Description:
This protein has helices at 138-145, 186-194, 233-244, 254-262, 303-312, 314-326; strands at residues 27-31, 38-42, 55-59, 61-63, 67-72, 78-88, 91-97, 107-110, 115-122, 128-133, 171-174, 198-204, 227-231, 249-252, 265-266, 269-270, 273-277, 292-296, 337-340.
Amino acid sequence: MKTSDFYYDLPQELIAQHPVEPRDASRLMVMNRTSGALEHRHFRDVIDYLNPGDCLIVNDSRVLPARIFGVKEGGKSLNEFLLLTQKEQKVWECLTKPGKRAKVGTRFTFGEGLMTGEVIDVLEDGNRIVRFACDDEFFSVLDRIGQMPLPPYITEKLADKERYQTVYSRELGSAAAPTAGLHFTNELLDKIRAKGVKIGYVTLHVGLGTFRPVKVDDVNHHVMHSEHYCLPQETADLINETHANGRRVISVGTTSCRTLESCPVIDGKIQAADGWTQIFIYPGYQFKVIDGLITNFHLPESTLIMLVSAFAGFDHVMSAYKTAVDEKYRFFSFGDAMLIV
């Protein structure tokens, strides 16, 4: 398939700039995976489509306030650093701009002296390796001086950092939120549990590559970025028990989906795993684990809309996106949601 096959025209005004309140008041498009039939609800109604014995699998990764601004030693202008991957204790791979100021050996001061950093290497792709130093615990300082790394299509400032975190986030490490989970409130999760639906946790630390466009014409030639994931034994047992009882495993988000589909399945049973994944899911992929998917509306020509098309069918998904535009759904990270079952 061609990357251009996944293009759709999106009016700028439909790109959500802020989250709705409360979280579960966002709209929900429900798609029948077999027929492509659509219903229009609100996210709080998702409970109506869940059955006792089903399980939801959520990504508990927590977003780092990974955007920090530093002043070059002896200078005045600000440099922006986006922390991408931790290499060692206080050593990070960073996206830096302007890059010409961040040569090897250059030192920067952050947060009026709360933290310093020295560029110790420049990678082939232009990213920098930076060694940071601070008196207090690193992540505590980062929480004080850092900003949320909102996607480039969100231009409004976020007043409350927690609105770019899921209510169940706990494992620090993401450069972006697993946004399908942003719609859940603790109250809605309690109601879902009370209905007899189990909730299992995986961790996939979302990387900056989630925003990178597909630059090849033929999707078969695209190479995915690598992200760290963990499927604990407790969640693997829950998934296997759910399937053994003839119930459904519903993935909350493409990150949870990619985690589950990256894990080994032996004799029909998923195995606990911890590692790095570059799995690229696009039409033609045969799903091994998930039976349903909760997801947001994704960018045209992105790997995420390709994954959704692989699960629900290319024609169904592209038709649903046209309907979403016509019905003025809100798109992307702070936008509305789809449930595909």
